[in-house]
Design goal:
globular
Length: 603
């Protein structure tokens, strides 16, 4: 939320002295015939005393400017009020017990609770707040046994990726002696009889699949799968509800453009067998009984669902049960012996309930134009839950009865403003090459389109990620300040399927920046704002987006919030997890890819 303040107060910087100077120490690197000089390479050493001193000086300067910014007090109060509300995660049901994490307004960290029955009292299961003096330790649910008596949960210190896995007896509220030491765990799955757990751990060499026998020391855990996979892969595993099948998926690249699926019959004692290999497409599996359901974009850019009999899994036996539609299949779940499917139709949610063979049962009635998660439950349980949110409706969790379609509110986030005063609409504009691109707008009802409103434009445009019109604290705070909030659905995302994603990756990445610039020009042309009142915001891949927009069209924006961005695209893939992003961006180390990367790299 501090970054939001930067957008609002950026113009104040212009009236202050220049920030502290940065030492120049040029380093030249040659790519083919192109020599690139970097004057600030020394700042890459984040732990050096000089770099730390530089950061401290820059922070002090920033704080001195913001301290004198007009309306800071009002903005601070709005943000503080938004943070002082109860939040809750969608519950997970096991054998009549409902598990969820709730953060009360007075809590620093969320607490894990459970209810015995849908209407039972909330009972504390794990409270991480007392576990560290600075209350930086967080707890998250990893898995719960089928009978609801054992919970695997992770404890994470601060914002680190690694967590230690603990196991809590739900009946006694006490931990078992078993602990998995700190590591980057991708999934944990408890056997139905609670005798052991399967888990996936990401190590330097790649994803590794292990089995831990309860009661045994963790250093005796058995590696069961994964030695053939490398550092650019990720993995997941889960146990089918009937306990027979361990099914695993291995993802290639951060956008998972290729996924392989494997299964092991836990009743026969056999090894892991491939189900899906050798296909450059996404596959997302789930299992009910002896049948695997797979969402895939193989031969279907918008997505479809296949059914595979795990007793006869040869490819010629695969059966399409949910065909591709003109709009995107976002996700699916197996609940109440039915298929719940979530679709993106012109970038807003539609949920259809289907039979186990894909026949229509009913469409879920949603509250309005917004984003809904697919109803999640258990194959053998009638109750499922989904979350709906829009730019004028805070997160609301609905309890949904799969058999009859009855739904009711389980939890609704209360915000200290009147969301009904906000109007939300979807508009379309032409990008540079004529492509029609949608954008969601939110603003107070009845404003005059005279170009005099501060506007905040945001987007992402990458990794097949769909940016949906959900209620975020950033959007709500900006709207409460009287601004116009705009969310552009850029190419590179997943809003219109794989073709939309591919139109904004690798050598076509410039399309994303063109879409964003065209969105800004639309807002100005239609009277929502003017360039002197327009700020742009992006984080991560969105940080690259606003960085490129700023360097390509500095005349178009008054303020830029560039959060934890990628900016030096020539060298980004040499750091930490960035190797996973090469399928999306390419690498300057490839002579064929260097020219287009170098051309748009903001740094």
């Amino acid at each position: 939320m501090k970054r939001l303040l930067i957008v609002f107060f950026y113009s104040v910087l212009l009236s202050f002295s220049q920030p502290p100077k940065t030492r120049v120490s040029a380093v030249t690197e040659t790519f083919g015939r192109v020599a690139i000089t970097d004057p600030y390479r020394w700042l890459e050493d984040q732990n050096s005393p000089e770099t730390r001193a530089w950061v401290k000086e820059q922070m002090a300067y920033t704080q001195s400017v913001l301290a004198k910014a007009p309306q800071k007090g009002r903005m601070h109060k709005i943000v503080a009020d938004l943070l002082k509300v109860d939040t809750e995660t969608q519950p997970v049901e096991r054998n009549g017990r409902f598990f969820f994490r709730k953060r009360r307004a007075t809590d620093e960290q969320g607490i894990i609770y459970f209810r015995q029955g849908e209407n039972g009292p909330d009972t504390v299961l794990v409270d991480p707040n007392p576990l560290s003096a600075d209350r930086s330790t967080s707890a998250g649910i990893m898995d719960i046994s089928n009978d609801g008596r054992l919970m695997a949960y992770g404890l994470r210190q601060g914002g680190q990726d690694e967590a230690a896995i603990h196991f809590r007896n739900v009946d006694t509220r006490a931990d078992l002696p078993d602990t998995l030491p700190e590591a980057r765990y991708l999934t944990v799955s408890i056997k139905p009889d609670r005798s052991g757990v399967y888990y996936v751990k990401s190590v330097a060499a790649g994803p590794r699949f292990y089995y831990h026998a309860m009661g045994a020391p963790a250093d005796r855990d058995r590696l069961i799968f994964g030695e053939q996979f490398g550092a650019s892969q990720l993995g997941e595993c889960a146990i089918s509800p009937n306990g027979r099948w361990l099914f695993c998926q291995v993802e290639y690249g951060s956008a998972a453009d290729k996924v392989e699926v494997y299964v092991q019959d836990l009743t026969s004692g056999g090894g892991m067998k491939p189900i899906v290999t050798g296909i450059d497409a996404r596959f997302e599996p789930d299992v009910a009984g002896d049948r695997m359901y797979v969402k895939t974009n193989w031969k279907a850019p918008n997505g479809r669902i296949l059914a595979i009999d795990l007793n006869h899994p040869a490819r010629e036996n695969w059966k399409e049960i949910v065909p591709e539609r003109p709009y995107v299949l976002d996700s699916f779940s197996l609940s109440g012996k039915l298929l719940a499917t979530a679709w993106l139709e012109n970038v807003h949610s539609r949920i259809d309930i289907l039979s186990e063979d894909g026949k229509p049962v009913r469409q879920v009635k949603l509250p309005g134009l917004g984003s809904a998660s697919v109803p999640q439950g258990r194959w053998d349980s009638d109750v499922a839950f989904y979350t709906f949110s829009s730019l004028n409706q805070p997160d609301t969790i609905y309890r949904y009865k799969m058999s009859i379609g009855d739904q009711s509110v389980w939890f609704q986030k209360k915000v200290p403003f009147d969301p009904s005063a906000i109007e939300v609409k979807q508009v379309w504009f032409n990008s540079k090459d004529g492509t029609r691109v949608p954008m969601f707008l939110a603003y107070h009802r009845g404003i005059k389109l005279d170009g005099n409103h501060p506007a905040l434009l945001t987007g992402y445009g990458g990794f097949d990620v769909s940016e949906l019109p959900v209620a975020s604290n950033t959007a709500l705070a900006w709207l409460e300040m009287g601004g116009v909030y705009a969310l552009a659905n850029l190419r590179g995302g997943g809003e219109f399927g794989e073709k939309w994603h591919e139109a904004g990756k690798l050598e076509k990445k410039q399309n994303v920046f063109d879409d964003f610039i065209a969105a800004a020009e639309y807002l100005i042309k239609e009277g929502y704002t003017r360039k002197e009142e327009l700020g742009i915001l992006g984080r991560s891949n969105g940080g690259l987006l606003v960085g490129a927009a700023l360097t390509q069209r500095p005349d178009l924006f008054r303020a830029v919030v560039c959060g934890f961005p990628l900016l030096d695209m020539v060298r980004y893939d040499r750091f930490k997890v960035a190797k996973f992003w090469v399928p999306e961006y390419g690498t300057a180390q490839d002579p064929k890819q260097f020219p287009f990367i170098y051309k748009y790299s903001p740094y």
